[in-house]
Structure formats: C-alpha cells, structure tokens
Write a structure and sequence with these properties.
This protein has 4 domains: 194 residues, Histone H3 K4-specific methyltransferase SET7/9 N-terminal domain, CATH 2.20.110; 100 residues, Histone H3 K4-specific methyltransferase SET7/9 N-terminal domain (Single Sheet), CATH 2.20.110; 145 residues; 202 residues, no CATH class. It has 19 helices and 28 strands. Helix 15 packs across helix 19. The protein has a 22-stranded antiparallel β-sheet. Strand 17 and strand 18 form a beta hairpin. By secondary structure, it is α+β, with helices and mostly antiparallel strands.
C-alpha cells in the first residue's frame, strides 16, 4: 500500500489547482493509474505487488485573536492562517509493498529537497508548495513531524513543533507587521500558555489561552513602559472575574470585572487626587454601599487626627441615600443624602463633641437656612441667630482655652463639686491640660500608631485596644481598678454595657484627654481625708506619677516588639471571635466581658494544659500582667475581668510555655522549625484580596493592625512583561548554590522560634479546638431533635402494639 501525504496545510493550493480547470486532468491521471494496475495483475503472477490508495480528510480551523479588546488592543484576526487536522491513512502489510509518490502529493508539492524513505519524505527536508508556501524541517512517514518552520507566501511564519502535520506543542508565530506569539499551540491555534506582542502598538499579553482567545489568568500591558496593565481573569477575550487594573496615571483598581468594566465589589485608588473608594460598582461607576476616603498628606502630630471619609450608599457615583461623613476635624454628619448634598433627616456632631439633630435641605439646616454649615470648623457663635429654639448656641459652644478640637467633656464628674465651684474647676483643669498639651498630643500619636501599618497620610486614630495598652503601661490598673472598671468610668451615661469594651472602637484626642481627667479624679480625689482634690490637682498628680515616667515605654507581649506584632496580628481576629464566644457562653445577655477563671477553664476545656503549662503557670502569667491576681498572702483572685488585650496577650505568653522544645522536636518532621512560616492557612488569616464592605473590626481597617499583604504601589509600578520561559520556569527551576539560606544569627533564630511557637499554638491547637467546639454546639440541637423524634416514634410504636393486643384480647 502506498501511504499518501495528506497535508491539510496545503488545502489552499489544492483548491487553486481545481479552480484553474485541471479537474479533468486529475481524473484522467487516476483512471490511467487504475488501468495500469489491472494490466500488472493479469500478467506475471510470480511477484505480487499490492498497492492500496490512502484517503485524506482535510478540514480547516481558524486561529484568530478577537478584535473585541478593551483599551484599544489591536486585532490580528487576519493574521492567522488555516490550520489542518491530522489525516487518516490505511496501510496494509499483508504483502510486500512497493512505495511510490502519491498522485495527490505530486499535484500539491511542486518541489521537495531532502531525505526520503520508501518513497516518502523522511528526516530533514524542505517542501515547496504551489502557492508559494514553504516548509523546512523534520518529516516522518511523509508527514510534517518534529521541529520545523512553515512560511506562508504572504510572510507569516510558524516555527515550532509539528505532530502529524499539525502545529502542536510549543511554537512561535510571527507576522509581517512585527507581531509575535510564543507559547503553546494546539491544532494550529493558540491554546495553553503564551505571550503575544503586537507589532503596530505597544501592547502585549502573557497568560492563558483557549482556542485562540484570552481565557483564564493573564496579564495585558498597554504601553512599553509597563505602567498601564491589567492582571486577572479573562473569559473569551473579555475581562471578567477578579482582576487588578493599573492605569498609566498610577491609579489602581482591584476587584471584580464584568464585560470589560468594573462591576461588583472592588477598590479604586486615585493616586493623582489621593482618594480611595472601596465598595460596590455597577458598569464602571460607584453604585451601592461603599466607603470613599480623601487623603491629605500632613505632618505627624497634626491637629487633625482623621481623614475625610464617607461611608454609605452611592447612586451613579454620587452620595445618595443614608450615609455617614466623617470630617478630618473630627466633625461628623450622619443621615440622608441627595446628589452629594445633606438632604433630609440628619445628625451633626461638631468637632467639640456637641450635636445637632434635625432636618437638612441642600446642605443647610432647614431651621437656619442662612447659616453656612462648614464642618471642617465649628461655626462662630456670632454667625448664629440671636434666638434659637433649638439651642444651637449651646450645641456649638463658646470654646475653651484649649481650642474646639479638644473641648473637654467633664459633665459626669463635675456633679461631685458644688455648682458655684464647677466653672472654676473647669478653668483650673484646662490650664493644667494646657501645660501638658504637647506631651498629650505626642502620646496620642504614639499609641494611635502602635502596631499599625504605615499610613499614606500620617493619619492615625486611637482605638480602645491601644488605649488599654497605654493605661497598663502607665500603671493605671495598679489602683485597684481593672480595665473594665476604667471603661465603665470613662463611658458613664454614654454607651450601654453591650457596646463597651470593643477593641476596634475609636477615640479622638478630646475624648482621650477627657478620659484621663475622669480616671485621675476617681483615682486621686479621696486621697486626702475630708478634702476633695480639685480636678487640676488630680490631673497633675496622674501626669507626674503615672503618665510622664511611663508613657511610650511599651510592655506586654503584643505591642512591645513591632516586628513580632506584625506577624502575630494575623491571629487577632480569630481570637476576638473566640473571646466573644467565651463571653457569651454562660450569659444570655450579650456582653464583651469574661473573668480570669473562665480563661483558665477555657485552656483546660480545649486541652491546652500540659506538664509545662499547668494551672499554676497560667496563674503566674496572669499575675505578671496584673498584680491584683495575687493579693495579700497566698490568696488568688481569678474573679477579675479581662479585656481582649489581656486575653490575647495571655494566649501569646501561654504559647511560649505550651510549645516547648520537646514538642518542636516532635513536630520537626511536619513543621518547619526555627523558620518563620511563609504563609498561614487561609481560614485563619485575613482576606488579602478584597476588603469587607460593611463596617468591620479594626483588625481589617487601614491604619490599624498589620493584616494587609496586598501588592504595594511600588510593586505595581515595577512590573514588566516577563518572557514565556521565565513564566513557565519560575516554579520549576532548581535553586543555585548561591541561593541557599545563609546562616542566621542567634537573635534571628530566637525570633523565628517565637514565631514558630505561636504559629503551632494557634494553628494546630487553639483554632481547631474552637472549630470543633462550634461544630459540637451546632450538632447538639440536631441531636436533641433526633432523640426527641426517636422517643415519639417509640411511643407511637408502643401505643400501636398495645392497641393491637387489646383488639386481639377482645376477639378472644
């Protein structure tokens, strides 16, 4: 049998042959060949030569890049040529075969230069086709097979792998205009991983392809510098799914896409105007719930501790509906909006802490349409009406010598003094604060930035978990007051118990100073018998004995080492969930409080007690942090309440005792010891791709604890188009000898050991035990319901049995 050379890449040449009127010639040649075969078979029979024509099936497939490309991606639809499928051939080896060149091959291949075997192209050679196409490379049994170069008459070239006449494997397409594709090829089209560069525009794409379309994960660059690009999900040449878009201006969007536009949840950062929006998008515009923030670069210690920020609903990019606007001065508006204006019912909190609630119309108070409501500063009393049924003069206040940004709120403790002395007390304490105001600002800035990421605008605001650290550093808890007691004293008549003791709640500078005065009064006012110390004296005493000597000397196991803080903070949010679970375990009323006795029970219940971390050691850990645990003599007081800061720091201390060297050695086969964990399990770490849209805990908020591992702006800008080989080999290339880890110092070894111990303690013990407890709590009601149903079924069966017995006895 003669095996033909069925090359589908030559279909165009074959069609040209037919169109030139040579069909009759082809038919005549085939008939002449069949006639000669019959003559041979009827002649000499001593040698049998059997030949069987092969059949070829040709089909074409288009390998194109769609012209529908966002950001003016050029189309190369006309660039690809028809690709051909593998043809079927039938070979019979029942008898000796004498090969000769097939007739179809003679009609399409005008000339061949190279090696042959049994009349078929074999080895390395060059085939010239009728229309001017040329193939140079490897042949096998008459087929293009192996490495080769196929050049079309119009200049398009493919260089790469061929399998049974099909471009398949790895190859490179080049076009006359300079465009180039390098990567995976299947049946002549782009399929798999590859890099495409446009020759007419500075556009390139590297990533996944599916049937010649960008599909899957990929990155497209829109300029030569690599400053304008998109990286993320593609569906049929369209940006759809999750992706990051960096514009040439430096603005960055990270979030969901649909039909090439921002759609869904995402974050946009306008670096040119120092703005950021995180929330919902519809067809490229802010629509739905979100947060818009305006950043203003300022020096450290600025009198404005906040940034302008709106959180609420948007319609077509405008503030519309219910929302809250917090101004950098500390003022706030919360209520209804209409097309970026305050309109409807709303509540204003001025920077001095006073409030006004009422109707607003087009950014003005409806009752006072002539009063300009500038919330970056409080209106002057002289600008207000002389008569005010709402008492707006009293709301805004007349100010103090400290300025409106730290106007004090001392109403709860002034009641302890006679009415005729209250004004004098306020003036005395204001002068005392004025003498220390610079120190207080410095302390506020220090603790508000404690354990936080770098802020793009040097703006930090103090949270309660940082306030607790300040109070413990300054030894306020040595005055027979727990942090819970202090929280209650600082929030008299302000917040219900259920809203107290939240670590993510924030305090402005004015509240911070007012709280210090409140605590100073309760600690010092009765130190002299039969004499009530003035507020100024109490405040000065606390400043001199507690704050000035101890402030900014950070203690405790959470905030004391900034490097460790950034690594153990990833456990904070899950531990807050556990803390709330324990607080509510034995209480029907929602509270954010637990006692030390419950902490010890928690460790026992979760099997976190061993020979090293026994009950005595746990009590020692609690006593080191709070001297009230061990009172006079051998008494131990475990009825003291614990804030979340104390709970979390106690766990960190327990981790270093529970995970001892023996346990580290036992886990050395499965856990990397003395090496900082490269990653944490996703279920116990924070979301690094998108922020939560609803108001969330401080552990996720920017400017708070280290939890973000997003790509920085510098990393965004430094990206360049990688080569295909670099992309493919990045995960498989062996490391060189020079890449080996250098010996680490004893300090670094000890640091890595600390991180490993905490990692094992939380990931392998606490969090799994908590998850089992939650699962058990969920299964208990189901088990009870199943048992109740089983009892009912047994009761029904028993009653039915008794009924049948009574019927049977009746018949007998």
């Amino acid at each position: 049998m003669v095996k033909l050379f069925p090359n589908n890449l030559l279909i165009r040449a074959y069609k040209s042959f037919i169109q030139q009127g040579s069909l009759e010639k082809l038919v005549a040649m085939v008939r002449e060949k069949r006639r000669s075969e019959r003559l041979k078979s009827s002649g000499d029979t001593s040698e049998v030569i059997k030949e069987e024509d092969g059949s070829s099936k040709a089909s074409s497939a288009s390998a194109t890049l769609s012209s529908k490309e966002a950001d003016s991606v050029p189309s190369d639809t006309t660039s690809q040529k028809d690709s051909l499928r593998e043809a079927d051939s039938v070979v019979s080896d029942n008898a000796p075969v004498c090969y000769e060149e097939p007739v179809l091959t003679q009609l399409i291949v005008e000339r061949y230069e190279g090696e042959k075997l049994h009349g078929l192209f074999e080895g390395e050679g060059t085939a010239y086709f009728q229309e001017g196409n040329v193939y140079s490379g490897m042949f096998s049994e008459g087929l293009m097979h192996g490495r080769g170069i196929y050049t079309w008459y119009d200049g398009i070239k493919y260089e790469g792998d061929f399998v049974m006449n099909m471009p398949r494997g790895h190859g490179t397409y080049t076009w006359p205009d300079g465009s180039k594709y390098e990567g995976d090829v299947k049946d002549g089209i782009r399929h798999g991983f590859g890099l495409y560069k446009c020759g007419t525009q500075p556009v390139s794409y590297v990533g996944q392809w599916f049937l010649s379309l960008r599909h899957g994960k990929g990155t497209i660059y829109f300029n030569e510098e690599g400053t304008s690009w998109y990286e993320g999900d593609w569906v049929n040449n369209i940006r759809s799914g999750w992706g990051v878009r960096c514009y040439a201006s430096g603005n960055i969007y990270e979030g969901q896409w649909e039909n090439n536009v921002r759609h869904g949840e995402g974050r946009m950062r306008w670096l040119t105007t120092n703005e950021e929006y995180t929330g919902q998008w519809v067809n490229g515009v802010q629509n739905g719930y979100g947060t818009h923030t305006w950043f203003l670069k300022r020096i450290l210690g600025s009198q404005y501790p906040l940034r302008n920020e709106y959180t609420g609903y948007f319609v077509n990019g405008a503030r519309h509906g219910n929302g809250k606007f917090v101004y950098s001065s500390g003022a706030m508006y919360e209520g209804e909006w209409n097309n970026n204006k305050k309109h409807g019912m709303g509540k204003v909190t001025f920077k001095n802490g006073h409030t006004f609630e009422g109707q607003f119309v087009n950014d003005y108070i409806a009752a006072f349409p002539d009063v300009k409501l500038g919330l970056t500063s409080s209106p002057k009393p002289t600008d207000l009406p002389t008569q005010s049924p709402c008492g707006i003069r009293n709301i805004i206040g007349t100010g103090s010598i400290l300025g409106t940004d730290i106007e004090l709120d001392l109403s709860s403790i002034l009641e302890k003094y006679p009415k005729n002395k209250r004004q004098a007390e306020v003036k005395m304490v204001e002068y005392a604060v004025l003498r220390h105001v610079s120190e207080l600002r410095r302390i506020y800035c220090f603790y508000s930035s404690l354990g936080c990421e770098n802020s793009v605008d040097n703006t930090f605001i103090l949270t309660y978990i940082q306030l607790w650290r300040f109070l413990k550093d300054c030894k306020f808890h040595h005055s027979n007051l727990t942090l819970f007691d202090m929280d209650r004293l600082m929030n008299v008549n302000q917040n219900p118990e259920s809203k107290l003791h939240l670590p993510q709640e924030t305090l402005l500078l004015r509240t911070f100073v007012s709280n210090i005065i409140n605590l100073a009064f309760h600690i010092c006012h009765q130190e002299q018998q039969n004499k009530l110390l003035s507020l100024g004296e109490c405040f000065s005493k606390i400043m001199a004995e507690n704050i000035v000597p101890n402030a900014c000397t950070v203690k405790g196991s959470f905030f004391s080492d900034p490097e460790k803080t950034g690594l153990v903070a990833v456990f904070a949010e899950k531990c807050w969930e556990i803390y709330q679970f324990l607080c509510n375990k034995n209480s029907s009323v929602h509270k954010n409080t637990m006692k030390m006795r419950l902490f010890v029970w928690f460790l026992k219940e979760f099997n976190l007690i061993n020979k090293d971390l026994n009950t005595t050691k746990v009590v020692d850990i609690l006593a080191d942090d709070n001297p009230a645990v061990r009172g006079n003599g051998d008494d131990i007081n475990l009825e003291l309440e614990m804030t979340f800061l104390e709970f979390f720091e106690a766990l960190l201390d327990c981790a270093l005792v529970f995970v001892n060297d023996t346990m580290l050695k036992e886990l050395s086969d499965t856990t990397t010891i003395y090496r900082m964990p490269a990653d944490f399990p996703n279920e116990y770490a924070f979301d690094n791709t998108s922020e939560t849209l609803k108001p969330s805990s401080a552990f996720r908020r920017q400017g708070q604890l280290y939890v973000s591992s997003r790509i920085t702006e510098a990393e965004f800008r430094s990206r360049r188009t990688p080569s295909v080989k670099a992309e493919r080999q990045s995960t498989s290339s062996p490391k060189n000898e020079s890449d080996k880890i250098e010996p680490i110092t004893p300090e670094q070894k000890q640091f890595n050991k600390y991180i490993t111990q905490t990692h094992i303690f939380f990931i392998k013990f606490i969090f799994p035990a908590y998850d089992r407890e939650i699962l058990l709590q969920e299964e208990i009601p189901k088990t009870r319901a199943w048992r109740a149903a089983a009892v009912r079924v047994l009761k029904m069966q028993r009653e039915e049995k008794e009924r049948r017995l009574s019927v049977l006895e009746h018949h007998i």
